[in-house]
Structures are given as C-alpha cells and as structure tokens.
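Quick illustration, no need to memorize.
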Amino acid sequence: MAIYHRSDLAQRMTQQLLNPGVLDEGLRSGLFISGLRRTGKTTFLIADLVPALQEKGAIVIYVDLWSDTLTSPSALLHRAIGEKLLELETPASGILERLSKVNGLDLGGFGFKFGFKLQDLGKEGGVTLAQALREVVDKAKTDLVLIVDEVQQATTSEDGHNMMLALKAARDSINPRPRTPGHLLFIGTGSHRAQLSEMTAKRNQAFAGATSISYPVLDEGYVNFLMALYGAEFDAQKLPSREVAMQAFRALGNRPEELKRALGQVVRQGGDPNVVMPIVAQTLRSTVADGEILKVEKLGSLAVEIFGRIAGSDGPVSRLFSVEAAGDYTKAIGRDVRVEEIQPVINALLAENLIMRVGHGSYTLSDPYVGEMWKENLALLGGAK
C-alpha cells in the first residue's frame, strides 16, 4: 500500500534541528521522541525525516535497536556507522554526490580518506566514537544526524549505557567548538514512554536535560488519504463516511494498522458501514487494551489496585507510597499491605511500560488509550474491579 508522507512535519523538524532558532538551541543536546507502538514513528523517520535532513545536506545514520535483539546495542550502532563511513570512502557513491550537489563539497571524484581503519571502530585500543564522528564532521563540513530507533533498549544493559555515554562524549567533543563546521545531532525514539522519559530526566543518564517530546500522532490527513485509497478499490457504499472513519481512528488510538484492519472488516462484513464501523472499532479497541490490562493483572492484585488509582485520575497521581495509600490498598485487596511492598510493584508497572514517572513521586499512564478502556470496563461493571 502507498505510504502516507508527512512532508510538512519533516520539514519543520529539519529546520529546527539544522537551523535552530533561539528557542530550539536545546535540540543540539539531544532530541527524544516517545510514541506508542504502531502509530507510524518508524515510517515517518525513514520515509520523511531522513530524506528531508539529507536534502538539506546533513549526513544521516539510522539504527534500530530492535532490528536484532540478540546483538548488543553498541554492535548495532558501530555496524550502522561503519556502513555509512564506507559509503563516504567509496568514490562516486550516492552520499558523495549529494554532498557535492547540496554542500558544494569537491572531492575530485575520490571518497573521504579517514585517519583510522573502519574495522578498528569501537575496538579496544582503536578509534573512539568521538574521534570517528568528529573527523566525519570536520571532513564533510556539515551536520551529522544520528537517529537511534527504540533507544530505550540501551537502558537494559551495561553495554547500552556505555554506548550512550560514548555518544554524549562525541556530542561534547564536536558541538561546543567555536568554529565547528557542523554539529552532531542525536535523535532517540521509542515506544517505552516511561524509559524514554527517564533517559532525559535522571541525572545519571548520559542525555539528562535533553529535549523530550511526544510523537505527533497521525490525524485526519491520514484518514482522508486512506479513504481515498480504499475508495479507488471498493464501492463507495461499502465504506463509512470520513467523519465516522475519523471517529474510529481516534477510538483506535490513532494507530494506522488498526484503522486498516477495521476498514477491511467493514468491507468484508457488509451492511451499513456507518453502523458497522463503530462496532468493529470498539471490538478492536477492546482487544488491544485487553492485552495491556492483562499485563497488569499478571502482576497481582496490588498492581491492579495501584494501576486503577492512576487510571482513574484525570492527571498525574502522587502519594502512592504513603501510609494512607497502603491502608486503602489493604481494604481494596483484603490483605495487609506494607509500605515497602509498594515500590517493587510500581517498578514492575514501569518496566512493563504501563505507567511512567512524570515528576518526583508522581505517575501517569504510558498509554491514555488503555486508561480509557479501564474506565469503560469499570463503568460496565458498575465500578467493580
């Protein structure tokens, strides 16, 4: 199926990254973009943001830490960087032609000649990331953008933690220089909102203080695009109105794949599509949310009670560790709950990406969509858990 391009968003982000105004200068410390799975983040990165950055003369290196979970994060990063450096060394490669055209770089038909061997990158006693990336920036005289997708994987191991420290060292060795010919721009994206939030909020993290934003979800432009595609293939009478499709898309958490599934079921099922579509969307919505709620239930009754307290609030919740809260949990689950039991359960909810920390002792849901389903289920049960 054809790709829905978000060119305007990509161009705005490119401008903010490569030519930041006063309010955007902080992006050079790092940009972390969090968004739920299956909302189109990776498609946007590869199909829109990378081409937009390259069009403005930046060198872009992209690596997905979920592409091979059996390989360490640093090995995946070094592989991606090595492949890009090999391109830069190769005469008449596409990247050299682009740099020549956009930036006026003249290599006389030859590739770059680096002062290190690619196979030594990341090896003990070999060239460091800081040395290698600084040499790339200095020779190419342009910005180098490193995009790490599912960056939260780096928090799960010492190898990943060391990789992030090495990237911070590279950033700090390039960007503060008074006459640097380019900057190292780091973009980390991920679906684990809790972990991404902590990567910029905790002082012991390499990119503490970097900019953190939520991924801008797809909107009615995508719905119109998809409806046009389906309209070209199916009888219009088999499709819901665009208004009904948009309502279903919102109900499905703005997830494009879920909307495609819903439209496919409506077309196959027949009947009045404007009546069938909301029913199909609600069924799919429940299926997706039920999987997340099952994760909560597997963590035990105390986890269910704590999650319910957070899900039932319209904003962040604090005082989850208080003696008063422990008393409430005791009454709710029918056994004595000690204060020291609470922290491990909250840590488990964080690890499952069910909740996220938004301040000291303050928590909210990682996915508001799941919270809505939780409230709906409680309403159907008359408030019973």
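Residues 73 and 160 are 6 Å apart (CA to CA).
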